[in-house]
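seq as requested:
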Amino acid sequence: PRFFASVTGSSSLLLRHHKGSGSTSAMALGSSGSGNSQIQLFKVTTSSGNAFEQPIGPGEQFSGVVAIQLLRPIAASQLVVEFVAEERVAQGGKGSSSSSKVVKSQPFYARLAVWTAARKGAAASTVLSDGMHVFNFVCQMPYVNYPQTVHRAEYDIAYRLSSKLLGPDEGSEQVVAFVEKEVFLSPVVTRMASPEPLLVLETLYFEKKGRRGKAAVELRAA
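struct tokens:
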């Protein structure tokens, strides 16, 4: 996917694919939840992909909003948006005498900083001011048939969109506050006539090449 976000000062980021209608509010807050008393509201919403019945397909674009309301200024270095695909497969099978081995992979990972602290000049500050801050972004999916969202005991693939407020140290990955929601994806499938009573389903694979021949997932400011 490609992310595009609207911030004070334009920013864009092209993210790579790794081989191997109504908005819905995001989940909980926090440094892993949110016990931060300075934060009154922190949520992420999207225009589509909010339900299994309304998934996002290959080549589609969806918009989103990150909103954070602070009761008091808070020390921070960045506010980032991340979009990640996570796959988990339990190997070993049913009835296996040995314990199942869990294999995890990440088909893609996209990240965009929608706000970055100014560290130089007269306006230098590592503080996000109090009040309401709203950041718009757009995510462009590549023409790649990623697997459908699935949650099963033996197999799981999920697409998660999150926003993180990071600590004040430059380059810090300390999470001050965190919010996340699941986004639902589905591949393009065609139905073809068949002499059999059951329909034959064929998946169409489309691929848009990015730099170095890899499919691109891109986030950018709107």
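The chain has no helices and 16 strands.
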